[in-house]
Amino acid sequence: MAIAFFDLDKTLLAVNSGSLWVRRELARGHITRMQALRASMWLARYHLGFVAMQDALRRAITHLEGTGEQHVRERTVQFYEEVVRSQFRPGALRAVEEHRLAGDKLVLLTSSSGYMSELVARDLGLDAVLCNRFEVDASGLHTGRPLGEVCFGEGKLFYARSYAAQAGVPLSECAFYTDSYSDLPVMEVVGRPVAVHPDRRLRREALRRGWSVVDWGVPGVLIDDAAPPAGC
């Protein structure tokens, strides 16, 4: 048995569900224009190298303070069913099934929320979810604090290492599929790092290191099984 770790946004999915969620929440009046603008500004600062994404995520989580867990969970279910469920890459579904047939553990490793991640895991029949979860008080309201380490960058490596150790599987026998350079800490330690539609920095790093670079297609477009992968 080995473990196959999968990133979610732009990897299993052809879209960034987080960005779509912010737009939808703004359109439906669940967040203000100022909150949406702040989220965009933090993301821009991250891309410019002025702030760590871990800090941006912690900042975003603070905006949940005082909101009801059940209400957010219900909105996430509706969002998933109406927007996200149709966005799985065809190659992603095939890769999941190949690992399942090989007897591997299937694990979602994402910075997305537990509310979204659990829905994905249910639909794809995954074995475990490693993601960002939020503290909830006794009355069912979010406190604005994360539960445990923030699952991003080095945080993803922390969760991957912990899960692999509990399963008794060395990371050298694991695979990890992602599109993002921010996941380099995990890519560097697994035995099979695979860049899926990678961003510019990850593509450059993958080609330099001889990692696989693959095209999993987009929803509604069939992949030619005979076509060679994009990269080596």
TrEMBL record:
<dbReference type="GO" id="GO:0016787">
    <property type="term" value="F:hydrolase activity"/>
</dbReference>
<dbReference type="InterPro" id="IPR006385">
    <property type="entry name" value="HAD_hydro_SerB1"/>
</dbReference>
<dbReference type="InterPro" id="IPR036412">
    <property type="entry name" value="HAD-like_sf"/>
</dbReference>
<keyword id="KW-0460">Magnesium</keyword>
<dbReference type="InterPro" id="IPR023214">
    <property type="entry name" value="HAD_sf"/>
</dbReference>
<dbReference type="Pfam" id="PF12710">
    <property type="entry name" value="HAD"/>
</dbReference>
<protein>
    <submittedName>
        <fullName>HAD-IB family hydrolase</fullName>
    </submittedName>
</protein>
<keyword id="KW-0479">Metal-binding</keyword>
<keyword id="KW-0378">Hydrolase</keyword>
<dbReference type="InterPro" id="IPR050582">
    <property type="entry name" value="HAD-like_SerB"/>
</dbReference>
